[in-house]
Amino acid sequence: MRRFVSVVALAPVAVGCTPGNAAFSQGDVEFWVGQGASRAVLVIDWDTGPDPVSLAWGYRWDGAATGEDMLMAVIAADTRFYARFEAFGFGNAVIGLGYDLDGDGFSISDGTAFDGGGVSFAGRSDGATANDADDHYVEGWNTGFWSYWQGAGEPFAGGAWAEAMVGLNGRMLTDGDWDGLRFAPGFVGEAPREPAAAVPGPASLGAVLAGGVAFRRRRPGG
Length: 222
What we know:
It is built from two helices and 13 strands. With about 220 residues, it is mainly β.
């Protein structure tokens, strides 16, 4: 089943990543986005491609926040993270997610243009790939989808993953939560694998040093 998000108005160890530990936990997260007393972790697993194939970020907030809020905050704050969505009247679907692993710019094979925040609403698509073989990009609509998972406890250190029964916009975060997105080729979903810790690249350090302020503008391609 495809997972939908409702996006707010307008959500080899390479440079910018560190290898995951034997039991990756919240304490291993290096790239934190946002401000607040509550914390959650986002794991993105591209299922295939260059190492590290799975990356993790942290999200801080106060008050109410959803899985969508966390995803969109991370995309906005990490200048290497790109996302393609399809807009529907009842919500928006995650079509493709990409990451500029080597920090030298990002584009995909069908020429899709991403805005200054790393987001495109170009719609459903199958089969586009990253133009740089050193980067991540996986998309799908008829051939696969981005499956959504929620962690119980520390999923790589004694806890477990369970496939989400709601979309990202319906997921209300609580302190200590883990969310994961893993691409499911052929619509066969599997839980996210142990990640490496994403690390802020030079263009992202300003947001981190300023307290993780997200939803800022950035230069296309990095």
